[in-house]
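Now for a specimen:

…
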Amino acid sequence: MGKSGRSKEDYFLSPEKKKILIIAGEASGDLHGSGVVRALLRLSSDVQVYGVGSGNMRQAGAELIIDSSQLAVVGITEVFGQIGNLLKGYWQLKQFIKTTPLSLLILIDFPDFNLMLARVARGVGVPVLYYISPQVWAWRSGRVQKIAKRVDKMAVILPFEVAIFRQAGLEVEFVGHPLLDVLNVNQPEIAPPHTEEWRGDPLIALLPGSRVKEVNSLLPSLIRAAEIIRENKAGARFILAVAPSLNVQEVKEFLKSADLSVTIVQGQTYQAIKAADLVIVASGTATLETAILGKPMVILYRVSSLSYWIGKILVKTNWIGLVNIVAGRRVVPELLQHEAKGERIAAEVLKILEDESARQEVLQGLAEVRDKLGTPGAAERVAQIALEMIGAVRRGVES
C-alpha cells in the first residue's frame, strides 16, 4: 500500500474511466506526447488523459494541468533562472499524483524532473511507463539503476537502447522513432519558394541550429563554405532554413557582406531539406530528420572550449551526430570545433557532390539508419503498451 493509503489494485477496480497522466516538459515532448494522447483516445473509450504539455497535447484531447512552457529549460545555467517554476510544478504534480486515482503515469524525456515524479508515483503504487529514454548511453550512465528502481516499463526509440535497459532488469520495448511519423516520408515533395529556378543545379540547405548562440557561432562558417562551393560550382544555389525561434532580420545581418545569393525561409525546415541535394546541419535532432529524409549531410558542432572539454570528459560516445551514433559508425562527416570552418566544410560538401562513389556510400548508410529506426507508428505502439499495462477496454474489442 502506498503512502496515500491506496493499494495498486484500487487503480484497476474503479468503474470510472482509467486516468492517465502524461508529462512532457519540452516542445518536442509535447509534439510526441500528442500522438500518444490521440492514439489512446482513439483506441479506448475507457481512459481519461491528463497532461503536462502545451498546444499539441491540448488539441489532441489531454486535460492540461500545467503548461510545459513554464517548465522548459535549455542549458545548465538556465536551470537556475527557472528553479522556482520547476519546484512549483513538481509540488503541484506531486500532490496531483498523490490525490488522484491514476492508473498510469507516462513520462516523456525531461529526465531529471520526470524521474523525481516517477519516485512519487512508485510510492503510491502508480505504474510508470517511460517513453523516449534519457540518453544514458551518452552520459550519466548511472541513471540506469535509478530508472530501474522507479519505472515499470521503457518504450525506447533507438534500437540499441533495448540492451541497455534489459541488462538493468527493466522491461523494455523498441517502438520505433516518432520522427518517422512527423516527417511522413511518403508525402509528395514540398519545395520552398523559388526552387523551380534551381532545377538542374545543386541545391544546398544550410541549417545553422535553433539557438542564437549556436547560429552566431556557425553561420559565418556556413556562409564562407557556401562562397567556396559557389566558386567551384557556379550553378550551386543555397537555401537557409531559419528556426521559428530566431529573428530573421538578425540572421540576414550575417549575409550583408557575403558575395552570395541565399534564399531564406522560416518555419519550412523540412521542406528545405526535402528540396535539397545536400544539407549542412548543426548537430542535433535535425541530423536525424535529414537522415530520415534521405539527404546527404555534413554535421557541424562548435561550442565554447570549456563546454567542449567538459563534454569530452562526460559524454561517452564516439560520435556527435545522432546519425552516426545510430549507425554505430561514421556514415556522414562530422566537423567539430576548429574543424567546422568554411574551407573544411566546403571540401566535405564538394567531395560528396563530385565523387559519385562517396555519395552512394553516404546514401547507403542513411538507408541503413532509417531501417534501424523502425517503422512509423511509435505513438500507436506506446498507447497499446499503456492500455495493456492498465487493462483498459479497447474500442471494438471488448464491450
Remarks:
- Residues 229 and 347 are 8 Å apart (CA to CA).
- Confidence is low (pLDDT under 50) at residues 1-14, 72-81, 190-198.
- The chain has two domains: 10-176+377-390, 195-372.
